[in-house]
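Folded chain entry
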Amino acid sequence: MKNRNLVLLGFILLKFVLQYVLIDPVYELHRDEFLHLDQAHHLAWGYTSVPPFTSWISWIILQLGNGVFWVKFFPALFGALTLLIVWKAIDELKGGWFALLLGTVSVVFSSLIRVNMLYQPNSPDILAWTLLFFTIIKYIHSENSKWLWFAGITFAFGFLNKYNIVFLLIGLFPAILITEHRAILRNKQFYYAMALAFLLVLPNLIWQFQNELPVFKHLDELVRTQLVNVNRYDFLKDQLLYFVGSLFVILAAFVAFIFYQPFRKYRIFGWSFLFILGLFVYLKAKGYYAIGLYPIFIAFGAVYLEQLLSGKRIKYLRPVILAIPILMFFPLLQIAFPNRTPQEIRQYPQKYKDFGLLRWEDGKDHDLPQDFADMQGWKELAQKVDLAMASIPDKEHTLLLCDNYGQAGAINYYSKIKNIGAVSMNADYINWFRIDKEIRNVILIQEASDDDPERARERPMFETVEHVGEITNEFAREKGTSIYVLKNAKTDINQIIRKEIAERKSRR
């Protein structure tokens, strides 16, 4: 047992190291990370696009100094906990050393490293899916109702992190009905656990109703602006790539549900997988929505392969099998991680293009993968905004207004001016305006696609309107984003802002 714990600890440490070293220092934080970090200053039971869990972690990061190390630490931690659950699942399924090692290398050397690099709800989402599946294994194995309670708590945790876990529940229910596990519907503890889960998520549900269900408005916007460019073929192709080195382990799990007698009672997992994946395909979901399905199947597959390779004549294949996920991971190092500079990627783009990594949400190919381009240009923007703010003597009555949440969050994070207070009519920032004081000056951050470079709308409202800078980083998604300084308002800017906020909210 002591040796097992040491090996597990070694893999966990390896995972943490990889999460840090596979990011080239030229890359900054990601657009989405800024929004989540800013939520620490506006704690609530819900937000426009996500539930509250991420804001709680952001508050902890803020107390720790808000440094990049801690921003990267927590997604790495959630990834390490996912690895721990897979290890425990293999142990619960009576797997030995080979199964433990195969399951571990399959999880460590996979796309989870890429997911766990970004401070987003995706890492705890995958952890929640894996943990919920694990509680089901424990309940099936022990028939102890306490695991139903743990399942309810786990679902609530997942729900308060990201609503994506609802799809797990939708897919799991018909799987229960068509297997012998429908007997659970006669267990009153099952309903008590559901009631507990409901009580735990109730504050977020109340917040949703109080704010006119922004989650559905966000989903509608997502469908119109992003999912419209997603096709089902790409979704299925992505599923093969996420765990390409351990795909044979996942497939082995499905074979085991059919032919391996000890796993017949776990066929509910196979059915739930088919229902959930089918639902995602039908909805034309983004590929990464389904990543949480796979870690637990790696546990099943690893244990089954250990049984298949238990004979004396074929035991020599075990080291070869263990090497496959590691060897298959090396090609991914060339394309899947921000470990090459933008110049290097532009110079050798073909590998990225072959895997569709240069295609953005707009359906077009660009120089960098979109996530990488979203990690460029932010420091430059914040530095130039600080210079613009320094040119305004009356900072107390100055509004810093941005076109999108990435700009606002990046300025708030990287600015050297304390509490600079950048806001936007975009995402949650529309709820974070502070316009209790008269606005006399505005620093305006406008995207390159803006069709009014002369600021014809704003010029009559201010004595002076000056273009003072723009993002020049050629690899930044925000390249060309401009900074304008609007001084000495000649009209009631507060009233205009309030009216604009009301109109934006009414259109959501």
Summary: The longest strand covers residues 462-470.
